[in-house]
Inverse folding.
């Protein structure tokens, strides 16, 4: 029997190389991956943060594809993970006469962040083509002295060509837990399903095809007043825009939702919030990555 679906995996282990860059610690990594994953050349910023773009060489996912992505950050590491292109999920419903209801493509993500380490996982958007079925799961374990920033940007259909999600479905589950041997210390649990019903509902997406989430979990003893100031600054910046943006304060961090019609506008919003988070955390200002598509302006 010829196998037509991908079963790829990627394992990344980041650790601090204290002998590098003089007084600045440098994060380096070891990796192991199979197709369709490919790692592009990594770079470093002035804080020794490892900036690594990941590429999906197949050009998109079809029904039955299974991807596994595992990331470990050893102590005292700083990492920015991103992707070099949007993830495309092609139509599955109605394609096969054997399985006309279609088959989900799935991605499982396991992330472990040890003491005094900081991971920013900022992939480009996922585009669900008409009748595409996609499910992703994230399990994140983080220490009390570490932080995790994650953005997830979803476009339902190719609206520029008049396409919507049709019978497609996007499912996502995110679980973030603090490392604790005594009891389950949950920081954040989020479960989302987007379909034609939620896309067209007035109380849902109201025909706006772009949905985004930004989650930031800070270290456990982070100043509450700094978080409040962060939220205040974000609200001031976006007060005069037409974006549908909501911000919530978590016990240790913030949660942001974006709803609109432009992926570019969502990226701008998230980039702006990322700059604010870097600032309040005492880290260097982020730069727009060259592996991302060129934008007209990043002046927020």
């Amino acid at each position: 029997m010829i196998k037509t679906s991908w079963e790829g995996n990627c394992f990344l282990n980041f650790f601090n190389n204290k002998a590098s860059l003089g007084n600045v610690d440098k994060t380096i990594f070891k990796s192991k991956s199979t197709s369709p994953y490919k790692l592009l050349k990594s770079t470093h910023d002035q804080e020794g943060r490892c900036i690594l773009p990941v590429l999906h060489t197949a050009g998109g996912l079809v029904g039955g594809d299974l991807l596994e992505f595992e990331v470990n950050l050893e102590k005292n590491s700083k990492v920015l993970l991103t992707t070099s292109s949007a993830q495309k999920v092609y139509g599955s419903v109605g394609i096969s006469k054997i399985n006309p209801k279609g088959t989900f493509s799935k991605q499982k993500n396991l992330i472990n962040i040890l003491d005094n380490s900081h991971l920013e996982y900022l992939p480009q958007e996922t585009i669900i083509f008409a009748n595409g079925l996609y499910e992703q799961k994230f399990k994140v374990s983080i220490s009390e002295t570490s932080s995790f920033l994650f953005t997830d940007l979803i476009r339902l259909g190719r609206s520029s060509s008049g396409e919507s999600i049709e019978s497609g479905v996007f499912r996502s589950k995110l679980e973030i837990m603090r490392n604790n041997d005594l009891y389950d210390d949950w920081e954040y649990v989020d479960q989302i399903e987007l379909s034609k019903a939620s896309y067209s509902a007035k109380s849902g997406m109201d025909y706006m095809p772009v949905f985004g989430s930004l989650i930031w979990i800070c270290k456990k003893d982070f100043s509450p007043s700094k978080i409040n100031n962060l939220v205040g600054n974000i609200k001031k910046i976006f007060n005069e825009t037409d974006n549908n943006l909501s911000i919530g304060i978590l016990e240790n961090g913030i949660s942001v939702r974006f709803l609109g019609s432009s992926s570019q506008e969502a990226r701008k919003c998230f980039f702006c919030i990322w700059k604010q988070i870097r600032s309040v955390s005492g880290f260097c200002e982020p730069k727009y990555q060259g592996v991302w598509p060129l934008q007209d302006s990043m002046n927020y």
